[in-house]
Amino acid sequence: MTSPQALDEQIRSVLTAHGRLNKPVADLSADADLYQAGLTSHASVNVMLALEGQFDLEFPDNMLNRSVFASVTAIRSALLELGVA
Q: What residues in the chain have per-residue pLDDT under 50?
Protein backbone atom coordinates (compact mmCIF):
# COMPACT_ATOMS: atom_id res chain seq x y z
CA MET A 1 0.00 0.00 0.00
CA THR A 2 1.31 3.42 -0.96
CA SER A 3 1.18 6.12 1.70
CA PRO A 4 -0.42 9.47 0.82
CA GLN A 5 3.00 11.12 1.17
CA ALA A 6 4.65 8.63 -1.20
CA LEU A 7 1.81 9.04 -3.68
CA ASP A 8 2.17 12.83 -3.51
CA GLU A 9 5.91 12.48 -4.16
CA GLN A 10 5.21 10.40 -7.27
CA ILE A 11 2.63 12.93 -8.48
CA ARG A 12 5.06 15.80 -7.87
CA SER A 13 7.76 13.93 -9.78
CA VAL A 14 5.44 13.57 -12.79
CA LEU A 15 4.43 17.24 -12.52
CA THR A 16 8.09 18.30 -12.41
CA ALA A 17 8.88 16.27 -15.52
CA HIS A 18 5.75 17.03 -17.56
CA GLY A 19 3.80 19.95 -16.05
CA ARG A 20 5.92 22.86 -17.30
CA LEU A 21 4.94 24.91 -14.25
CA ASN A 22 6.17 28.44 -13.57
CA LYS A 23 7.13 27.50 -10.01
CA PRO A 24 9.00 24.54 -8.55
CA VAL A 25 6.47 21.85 -7.68
CA ALA A 26 8.16 21.44 -4.29
CA ASP A 27 7.18 25.03 -3.42
CA LEU A 28 3.47 24.39 -4.02
CA SER A 29 1.08 23.18 -1.36
CA ALA A 30 -0.90 20.03 -2.11
CA ASP A 31 -4.00 22.19 -2.62
CA ALA A 32 -2.34 24.86 -4.79
CA ASP A 33 -4.07 25.51 -8.11
CA LEU A 34 -1.77 23.98 -10.71
CA TYR A 35 -3.35 26.01 -13.49
CA GLN A 36 -2.48 29.24 -11.65
CA ALA A 37 1.04 27.83 -11.31
CA GLY A 38 1.30 27.57 -15.09
CA LEU A 39 -0.23 24.20 -16.03
CA THR A 40 -1.74 24.42 -19.51
CA SER A 41 -4.30 22.11 -21.07
CA HIS A 42 -1.57 20.67 -23.29
CA ALA A 43 0.72 20.05 -20.33
CA SER A 44 -2.16 18.48 -18.37
CA VAL A 45 -2.52 15.90 -21.16
CA ASN A 46 1.19 15.12 -20.86
CA VAL A 47 0.79 14.81 -17.08
CA MET A 48 -2.20 12.49 -17.55
CA LEU A 49 -0.28 10.27 -19.98
CA ALA A 50 2.72 10.13 -17.65
CA LEU A 51 0.48 9.23 -14.70
CA GLU A 52 -1.14 6.47 -16.76
CA GLY A 53 2.29 5.06 -17.52
CA GLN A 54 3.57 5.46 -13.97
CA PHE A 55 0.60 3.74 -12.37
CA ASP A 56 -0.39 1.40 -15.23
CA LEU A 57 -3.94 2.69 -15.49
CA GLU A 58 -6.20 4.64 -17.81
CA PHE A 59 -8.22 7.68 -16.84
CA PRO A 60 -11.84 7.13 -17.90
CA ASP A 61 -13.56 9.77 -20.03
CA ASN A 62 -15.55 11.11 -17.07
CA MET A 63 -12.25 12.05 -15.37
CA LEU A 64 -10.83 13.94 -18.33
CA ASN A 65 -11.60 17.40 -17.02
CA ARG A 66 -9.78 20.34 -15.54
CA SER A 67 -10.83 19.68 -11.94
CA VAL A 68 -9.12 16.27 -11.82
CA PHE A 69 -5.74 17.90 -12.55
CA ALA A 70 -6.27 21.13 -10.60
CA SER A 71 -4.01 20.24 -7.66
CA VAL A 72 -1.85 17.48 -6.23
CA THR A 73 -4.73 16.67 -3.87
CA ALA A 74 -7.20 16.37 -6.76
CA ILE A 75 -4.83 14.12 -8.72
CA ARG A 76 -4.26 11.95 -5.62
CA SER A 77 -8.03 11.61 -5.11
CA ALA A 78 -8.50 10.56 -8.74
CA LEU A 79 -5.69 7.99 -8.51
CA LEU A 80 -7.14 6.56 -5.30
CA GLU A 81 -10.56 6.36 -6.94
CA LEU A 82 -8.92 4.36 -9.76
CA GLY A 83 -7.48 1.90 -7.27
CA VAL A 84 -3.93 3.16 -6.76
CA ALA A 85 -3.05 2.41 -3.17
A: none
